[in-house]
Automatic annotation (TrEMBL):
The chain crosses the membrane at residues 34-55, 67-85, 133-154, 166-185. It comes from Comamonas avium. This is GDT1 family protein. Keywords: Membrane, Transmembrane, Transmembrane helix. It is found in: Membrane. Coiled coil: none annotated. It is a multi-pass membrane protein. Belongs to the GDT1 family. It comes from the Bacteria.
């Protein structure tokens, strides 16, 4: 039980202000469908943290910090460019505009955003420390949900009052800055 509580607390705190919280807000602003986004975040987190507990240490030894830094930096810059592409979403949904839909897009985006993130690394370390794989993965997943689900719900309400184009421009600038910081950093950047 200690592994579950400690894992929940550490990840919930570590996630505050993290790039995946920004991603949750962007998804809420882009799609305006909180339920599939929250379920997508949950699914991506379970899979990502499950893999982190099982193979995270191996990945960290196989991919050097410089390669990881370039992957993160270029991914953030690509996300910044994507944010500037005008949306063509309507009230009928995104299925005709995205081959994966809201849920699938959220799962893929969140899973990739968590790669090399401090919460993924924390999951690896906590699983090793407590030798309680299931409790750690359950705890880190709950911590992620406690930090990100409210952002989705509040973000959906916020975008009804704030012009979506402004949200996209601000998000693009933030992702561009994160990409530049990642490319200029030595070793694996901490971008939260």
């Amino acid at each position: 039980m200690e592994a579950f509580l400690v894992s929940t607390g550490i990840v919930a705190l570590a996630e505050m202000g993290d790039k995946t919280q920004l991603l949750a807000l962007i998804l809420a602003a882009r799609f305006r469908k909180p339920w599939p986004i929250v379920l997508g975040i949950f699914t991506a987190t379970v899979v990502n943290h499950g893999l982190a507990g099982a193979v995270g240490a191996w990945v960290n030894t196989m991919i050097g910090p410089d390669v990881l830094r370039w992957i993160l930096g270029l991914s953030f810059i690509a996300m910044a460019i994507w944010m500037l592409i005008p949306d063509k979403l309507d009230d009928e949904g995104v299925s005709e505009h995205s081959r994966w839909g809201v849920f699938g897009t959220t799962v893929v985006a969140f899973f990739l955003a968590e790669m090399g993130d401090k919460t993924q690394i924390a999951t690896v370390m906590l699983a090793a420390q407590y030798n309680a794989y299931l409790w750690v993965v359950l705890g880190t997943t709950l911590g992620m949900m406690l930090a990100n689900a409210p952002v989705v719900w509040l973000g959906d309400k916020l975008v009804k009052k704030v012009p979506i184009r402004m949200v996209h421009i601000i998000s693009a600038v933030i992702f561009l800055v994160l990409g530049v910081v990642a490319l200029l950093a030595k070793g694996v950047p901490s971008l939260a």
